[in-house]
């Protein structure tokens, strides 16, 4: 793809009109496989569902029997249900597409001379990309200005980052592995530096597009809930079809019924057994849960993560920006006997000018980190007449902070003078570089301890000169002079203490992760409510422990200080090895492996990098710890509601199966026909998808331990309790029907009485299965009840519908018999509710801390 006129693009970038024209010409900057499913494919999937195929077969059989009215009713019902399913599927897909659009990578471009952040799919050829550390590059481009490093392992398989220098746009987009030091590739990551790049190819024309890598098409492994549901559905479907085939043979050969009538009975039984509501429940509950979370400033990138929220036992969270406001400001400076506190006001003492100046010089000119921004702001405000700090000095080299040495150094070349070395970092690292010993080292340690105990983040600052012709390979070779300490403050978020207290009551352990000094970390921990005696572990101690020892050492630890990003992955794996379900927050490029490894990875929406957001399951749009607690609460709420819905489904199927099976075994008239089962589906599906999903949360939702990680709503105890309720309903209905048959009631009258009692029993079951039934009102219950009553009035009161469904006209004896059955069902459910030991899904034991 040639760059065309883009090769002479001005610094102002494209105009809005030019960008719109390019977007129309080339299409969106999206990769193969990211398009939404077409409606016809959704329709085909619905038509191939076993339930709908059975309904079509039943309609054909009614036609073969000469019952055109019954066939017409069934087939019209089939297409009505298909239309409803299509509408629901399309609505769910649109909701998920909207969530994907919100969570899609974004790009910073220059248009009309202004920086503009747009969705990556809107990037076009000729756009000027403004790139910073942590950005995922939106399209293939060439670097025009700046210097940066990029991780191209996605394309090349090489772990080493590639340094990029400005170059000229090529006539053809570069290919991975080519000698292209200025070429940048879509979906690769800026790991360091910043720059301005000209887009040369988008979408399928990029290197990633050419080899068919599409993030949107990545297939996520099935979750435990999905695996459990598929296993249960397969078992029930296979058993139902086998039992239906046996029933057909029994009715035909043993009961002497006609072959077509026997086949209709078998289809009715199979329809009664098939648990088609289960996929509906899981899809709707999880999708709507993601939608509800988005209204609470939590964006769900993977819907399956909603399921894991209810099982979280440990929340490993960053201090800065999550527990604190991320509003760093310089609070105090100390250099020997001289000190300055920002809260005291006044002018910065002259002896501290050099300390403030060198701290700013040791910081990138346009920093990403809030702490470094605060240092620059302080220097600009407190150093009179500086303007841009030494604008005539040439920056020659940057020695970045590393895991081995928590310090960074900038080397400058002033005009006509020796090179100036500005260094800042962890006080212990700066003291080591300055070779401090004895009383001087102890004095620095005492000052650091005192400042850290007030919750301040402390940095050491040093200065040096270099006269040699070549700069050294590492920072240790410089001869540095210790200048003093700079302390920064970041107050806790006001809502955090209450949120941590809520986690403690819910049996969730909070683990604070920070790169700060241990004393600073402990001071913040006390202020947010993590406890006076909370255990503390440092990055240096982590390095000295093997995996088994680390897992054991983490017991009771609430603070991890002096961490490098690489430590987080070890912490997550150690916690998981100890049986914990881990939710972890992160915001940097190096946090991505840990976010992927965590059971629920949570990225920061405001300060996080694109890489962290793409690796995470959830994105906090407000970066607040309280939003994580809201998400956990929503996950537990969904757990409860799915468990209640599944108990209801299993309870419902037992009496339906009994009414389809008993007539053949006991030589009764058919009690449930396929058309009547269609009516029941119109009750069961809305009940599961609407009533249980909208159920208010139980008041003790965050007062009990987390769900055990290996448990699910398909646990044996949960389903067995539903089956027990269903057995009671089936026994009452069977006993009632046996009495009516013994009294020689007409077939249609027995059928209509049993059907009314069954529908009424389902509503009693809904009341019994509501998790929060005694605490709050469900707004869907009354409308659903009214709709079902209206349908019953129609099918029993309108002669045509009544005859189609095989019902008798309503009568007082029939109403009294149905009422008696309902009373017995109510007593059975009330007795079970008093003995109910199923409760919510199984919970893990309470955890310390």
Automatic annotation (TrEMBL):
Protein's membrane topology: Multi-pass membrane protein
Keywords recorded for this protein, A-Z: ATP-binding, Membrane, Nucleotide-binding, Translocase, Transmembrane, Transmembrane helix
Family matches, as SUPFAM superfamilies: Calcium ATPase, transduction domain A (SSF81653), Calcium ATPase, transmembrane domain M (SSF81665), HAD-like (SSF56784), Metal cation-transporting ATPase, ATP-binding domain N (SSF81660)
Subcellular location: Membrane
Residues of the Cation-transporting P-type ATPase N-terminal domain: 6-67
Sequence intervals crossing the membrane: 42-65, 71-87, 232-254, 266-291, 644-665, 713-742, 780-800, 812-832
SMART domains: Cation_ATPase_N
Gene3D superfamilies on file: Calcium-transporting ATPase, cytoplasmic domain N, Calcium-transporting ATPase, cytoplasmic transduction domain A, Calcium-transporting ATPase, transmembrane domain, HAD superfamily/HAD-like
Protein name: Cation-translocating P-type ATPase
UniProt source species: Caenimonas terrae
